[in-house]
Structures are given as C-alpha cells and as structure tokens.
Amino acid sequence: MPITEVEGRRITLSHLDRVLWPDTGTTKGELLHYYAIMADALIPYCAGRPVSFVRTPDGVQGQRFFQKRPPAGTPDWVRTSETPRKSGELMPQVQVNDLATLMWAANLACVEIHTPQWLAADPGTADRLVVDLDPGPGRTVVDCCRVALLLRDRLAADGLHAWAKTSGSKGLHLYAPLRGADSEGASRYARRVAQELERAHPGEVVSTMAKAAREDRVFLDWSQNSRKKTTATPYTVRARSAPTVSTPLAWDEVESAASPADLDFTIADVPGRLAAHGDLLAPLLDPAAAAPLP
C-alpha cells in the first residue's frame, strides 16, 4: 500500500482503485483527489468543530454508518475535542482542521462530513443559523428555491443576511452568521420563522416534522440548530448514487433555477466553479457579517 506524506504526516493509502460509486465508476482515489484540491475552501467551514462522518467502506451501495467517535486506530496527531452529551458524558470527536486529517479521513471512506452550528471551544454559542429546505413528495429543489427567496427576505427583515448552498441531496440549506446567540435560541427563532412562512404560504411551506404533512410542500427543517444536530458541511461529498457535492450558490442561480439539473453538482464540477466564481459562501466566515438574533 502506498504511503504519502501530507503536511509532515505519514498516511498509508489503501484501495485507491476501489469503486465507491458504481453508477458512475467513481473511485476512492478520485474522492481523495477532490478533497485534496478543495481543502482550502472546505476546511474553514469545519475547522474547530466536532465532525461526524458518513462512512461507506464498500461503496455507497453497501453498508454505511454515521460515525461520531474517532475511528479505531485514529493517529495521535489527529486533533479531537470532547463534546458534551445530554447525559453529561463527554464524547471525543475528530476535528478536521488541516489537509492531513482530511486525507486520513477520506482514505477511511469518510465520504460525508457533518458539523454542528457551534465551535468545540464554545459549545453553548451558536455562530450560525441554518434552515434545511427539503422538498416533499411532488416537489423538487426548484420549489425549494422559491421558498428560499421568501426565507431570505424574512431573515433580512430581522437583520440576518443569508447565503444558500445545495444540500448535495434533494434540497437547499440557508445559512446566516450569528453573534451572541445560543443553540436553543437559534432553534426557537428558526422554528418561529418557519411557522410564520407556513401560515403565510400554506400551500407551499410546512414546518412540522410529520412526514405525512409534506406532500406537495417544502419542509423547513429548523431543528438542525439544536446543539445535538449536525448539517452537511459546505463542499462535502454526499453518499448518493453519484458523487454530488453540497455546493454554495449565488442568489441569481437560486432565482433562475428551472430544473433540478441546474443545481446538481458533482466532484467533477465543483473545483471549476470555485476557480471561476470563488467561494460563494465566504461571507458566512466573515465576523463582520454576523448579527444577533432579534
């Protein structure tokens, strides 16, 4: 098995020709290549945060599992932090703070990277608001785009500036940077806004968790602001039939989307988008853009 050195760390790479996405023939080596060239864009969104992984060691059509604790054999140079749980127990979790850790994780077929809306150093403070727009049966991401514009304007009325990305699955995520907030307060606020939009647009929006209520509507999942919840981090690959990516969007792309294919991006597309347009979600990282909850 080849051994490579990344930022002074020796990493043993394995099964680089293993096909992780049978429908497209995409290999683990291609996954590592994507994460290597996207590291500078991706890492700022997960650095300092406890991460959870979706692992698919035998490919996306095989067994998959959601891993929060560090995998067996985690090198001692991989940084971890202790995450408080509801029981009072502290649970160790990996932080992806550098390229070496990202490459080590990708080599373990950690296809997806998920993060909470708080930093490990301050788990009581939410520095991001997130709403997951999920299309119910009969709706698509294009319907999510229409609702995203309503949500953007509603947040702006409270002084919160929002930016969008694809989930890499079926819908969209809207983020707004926060200052001086906590997870419970962020959850309450997101729920209240989702309920307001449901009352104003009952034929398009639903805010309740019941799946039966989502037919022909877009579900605004406000619950991912909870301290115990995570969201697919920007630029993460998703373990779907194709290697899709959770991709930042410009608002004019949201406004003009005419079909789901317009917002379907894979590991083959995203590096070129980044080179052409820069990081469209970068304002989320700017402390000057953060605002308090109303």
UniProtKB/TrEMBL annotation:
InterPro entries: LigD_pol_dom, MtLigD_Pol-like, NHEJ_LigD
GO MF terms held by the record: ligase activity
Gene3D superfamilies: DNA primase, PRIM domain
UniProt-listed Pfam families: LigD_Prim-Pol
All residue ranges annotated as the DNA ligase D polymerase domain in the record: 27-280
Keywords: Ligase
PANTHER family assigned: BIFUNCTIONAL NON-HOMOLOGOUS END JOINING PROTEIN LIGD
Record protein name field: ATP-dependent DNA ligase
Provenance organism: Actinacidiphila epipremni
